[in-house]
Design goal:
By secondary structure, the protein is of the alpha/beta class. It has helices at residues 8-19, 32-37, 84-100, and strands at 2-5, 22-27, 41-49, 52-59, 77-80, 115-116, 122-127, 133-138. The strands form 2 sheets. Strands 1-4-3-2 form a 4-stranded mixed sheet, with helices on one face. Strands 5-8-7-6 form a 4-stranded mixed sheet, covered by helices on one side.
Amino acid sequence: MGVQTADLANCLGWYQEFFDAEQKWELSRFSDLTLSRLPGIRKLIEVAIGDVRLHLFDRAGHNGRTANEDGFLFQHLCVQVATPQELVDRRRRWVEIYKSGRYSFARSEMPTEIVVDDDGVQSLYLLDVNGLEYELSYVPEGHR
């Protein structure tokens, strides 16, 4: 998944602190194909969150606005956690990071409460610094 941001240092720091993301590599020179698809791209950093790889990148001329919710958009990405307690801990961590003032957030919405569906699956929804939504989900063994 690629995450376009207006402030790469802010975004990278948040992903490292909240998700414990590990920076793998970075680029500042791009192919003609990449430049045609992402005009103005200046830098791309790959981070790993477990087995998931994300590409964080900035582009010259970014307008700083979040996606229009009435249009097509990537609604959220679900990340499975190992225990219900991890949901509680991640929610607390998000709030602590937000209140610390160390990062600028595109939207000021707090994470949802942890919800439990009829199958016992527990979910928490939260936004990254760019206003992109993540679902953290605990799926009990033997479900889904």
